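Hey all, quick one. A colleague (J.T.) asked me to put the 2'-O-acetyl adenosine-5-diphosphoribose job into the tracker so the inputs and the C-alpha cells live in one place instead of scattered across chat threads. No bug as far as I know, just bookkeeping. Sequence used:
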Amino acid sequence: MTQPLTSQDRVFVLTGAGVSAESGLPTFRGADGLWRGHRVEEVATPQAFHANPELVWQFYSERRKRAATVSPNPGHRALAELERALDERFFLCTQNVDSLHEQAGSQRLVHMHGRLMQTRCSRETCHIAPFDDERLYLSRAEIPTCPQCGALLRPHICWFGEVPFAMDRIFEQLRVCTVLLTVGTSGVVEPAASFVRMARINRARAIYIGPEEPANSKFFDEVVLGKAGEVLPGLVKELSG
Ligand code: OAD
C-alpha cells in the first residue's frame, strides 16, 4: 500500500515509452525495439539526418502513421485524473513524442524529447517555429524545405547529442516536488535517468512503475513491478487517499 499524498505534496511524473506500450506503440529497447535492423541511436541523430534524410524521415513517417491509430490506455488516463485532483501541484514530463497524454486529458506537461506530429527547420540558426504536421515523407523528393531559408525540414524531435526541450521548467519542478513518480522508462537515457537523483536531493519520495527494474532502480524508494495500465489506476487511488 502506497502512502497517500498530503495537501503539501507536489508530484513530478516522468514517463517513458513503457506508458504507451499497452496502447500498441513499441518501446525502444524492448524485444521489438529495432527498426529495419537499425538501433534507434543510428537513426535519431543530427548526423544520421545529414547523411540520409530520407531514411530518417521514413523512420518518423512510419511512427507518425502508427501513432495516428492508437488511443490512450488506463495508465495515461490515471495520470490525467491525478492532475485534475492536484492541479498546480502536478507536473508531467514525458520522454514520449506521441500525444497520448494530451489525448487522455493531461495539460500540465512538457515533451522533453519533442513531438512526433511537429516539424521544424533543420538549420539551427533559422527561427521558424515548429508547426503541427502529420504528413508522411517517404522519399527524398517529398521532404519539404523551409519557406524562410530553404534548408530541409526535420522532425521536431530531440536527437542524441541535442539538448532536450523545457529543461529550465523541468529543473524547477524537480527542485520543488516532494514525490517523483517514474513510469515505464529503462533509466539509461540522460538526462532523464538522473531526475530521480535530482529529486532526492530535496528528499522527494521516489516511486518507479514498470514490469521490470530500471537500470537506476537503486535510487527509488519503491519499485512497483507491473504494467502501467494495470498499476497506475490503483496507485493513483491510493495516493489520492
Ligand atoms: P525504453 O525502450 O528504453 O524503455 C521502456 C521501458 O518501459 C522499459 O524499462 C520497460 O520495462 C518498460 N515497459 C514496457 N512495457 C511497459 C508497460 N506496459 N508499462 C510500464 N512500463 C513498461 O524507453 P525509454 O526509457 O522511454 O529518445 O527511452 C528513453 C529515450 O530513449 C526515448 O525517449 C527515446 C529513446 O532513444 C529519443 O528518441 C530522443
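Adding what we noticed when we looked at it: The two ends are 11 Å apart (CA to CA). Strands lie at 11-15, 90-94, 109-111, 114-121, 131-132, 153-157, 179-183, 205-210, 222-225.
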